[in-house]
Write a structure and sequence with these properties.
The chain is mostly beta strands. The protein is 3% helix and 18% strand.
């Protein structure tokens, strides 16, 4: 009976939760917890809201933990082979048979000092940077599938005047019927 025009003498009765606006001549269904039978007079309309839930997703940042990078000091013994030079004094005796000359200093005591040179190894340490560890973060997107149960209201109109039952489902509303 929704597709035919109503006459001034017809009335329809609905069982609803209603809020009546007497000045507008329109009755809106409220979300109250009570039921009341309302009769629509000629020229009066009753607006019935139909509810449906839909899923929406929001994102929020959460702390997932942390990554720790540690450095430890490790000691180890290291050996270097360093070549060094040192002088050595060699004394050799040879047999000689000749006459002494006036320049020869005969029968005088004395000593000769022969300086001996050598090398010693000194060890120095110096700190050097041999490597760097670069630490960074990057954002990686992934898709997470979420689901939940949603509700919706469907409208069924039982018209006793024509004896017809009309279901107004979601597909009817999407088509604009």
């Amino acid at each position: 009976g929704w597709d035919s025009e109503r006459t001034a003498t017809s009335t329809d009765t609905y069982v609803t939760d209603t809020y009546v606006d007497e000045t507008a001549g329109t009755t809106d269904v409220d979300r109250g917890d009570y039921s009341e039978t309302r009769t629509a007079a000629a020229g009066e309309t009753i607006n019935v809201p139909v509810h449906e839930e839909e899923l929406t997703a929001t994102r929020r940042e959460v702390e997932r933990g942390s990554v720790r990078v540690e450095k430890d000091v490790v000691e180890e013994e290291q050996t270097l082979d360093v070549p060094v030079t040192e002088e050595r004094v060699t004394v050799q005796r040879r047999t000689v048979d000749r006459d002494a000359t006036a320049d020869d200093t005969a029968f005088e005591g004395g000593s000769i000092d022969v300086p001996v040179r050598g090398e010693e190894v000194d060890v120095q340490k110096r700190a050097r940077v041999t490597e760097e560890v670069e630490i960074g973060k990057e954002a990686v997107e992934r898709t997470e599938r979420v689901s939940d149960t949603v509700r919706r209201e469907e409208v069924r109109v039982d018209d006793e005047t024509t004896g017809g039952v009309t279901d107004i489902g979601r597909s009817d509303r999407e088509r604009g019927s």
